[in-house]
Design a protein that fits this description.
The chain has 2 helices and 10 strands; from the N terminus they run E-H-E-E-E-E-H-E-E-E-E-E. The protein has about 170 residues and is mainly beta. The protein has a single domain, classed as 2,3-Dihydroxybiphenyl 1,2-Dioxygenase, domain 1, CATH 3.10.180. A hairpin with a 2-residue loop joins strand 2 and strand 3. It is globular, with a radius of gyration of 15 Å.
């Protein structure tokens, strides 16, 4: 099964948790000081909000899958369609460890396609230091579809202009 993913940056987390809890008629599945996530069944949506963005609004969209095989099928489809893939592989962000890659649509909207592997106690971790938190901002899609990401420069997962393809970054 695939689940649609939406991540929205907000200014006031408590106010937005109250709003979305009322709208979805359920409390978040996960709440942190800077983050909340609802795993909705009807419709099946992974809806997340955080205070970690540059400005309020939709940060990125995505497709969450339940298995590595499903992720491989989506990746093969994107590759066959000549989409520029920003492959992070196994990484951490949004209190989770995931295998993921990114594509960017013609309007510049980042799409995350990912398989969640595990939950982690912090927003993100450096892969070489499992207990050290990453930079405070994350998942701000700012790049054209052909720009790659740079693992070393910051805690964001989506690409930003001028970055090179040196590997993965931590992200949501």
């Amino acid at each position: 099964m695939k689940r649609f993913h939406v991540h929205v940056h907000v200014d006031n987390l408590a106010q937005n948790i109250a709003f979305y809890s009322a709208m979805f008629n359920q409390a978040p599945a996960r709440t942190e000081d800077d983050y909340a996530k609802w795993m909705l069944q009807d419709p099946p949506v992974n809806f997340a909000i955080s205070t970690r963005g540059d400005k309020p609004g939709v940060d990125h969209l995505g497709i969450q899958v339940e298995s590595a095989d499903e992720l491989q099928v989506l990746k093969a489809q994107a590759t066959q369609a000549d989409m520029a893939l920003l492959d992070e592989g196994e990484t951490t962000c949004c209190y989770a460890r995931s295998d993921k890659y990114w594509v960017t649509d013609p309007q510049g909207i980042a799409w995350e396609q990912f398989h969640t592997l595990d939950s982690i106690p912090v927003f993100s971790q450096k892969s070489s230091e499992p207990n050290q938190a990453q930079a405070p901002a994350c998942c701000t899609p700012k790049a054209p579809k052909t720009v790659a990401i740079d693992k070393a420069s910051s805690g964001c997962c989506a690409p930003t202009a001028g970055q090179t393809n040196n590997g993965a970054k931590a992200c949501c």
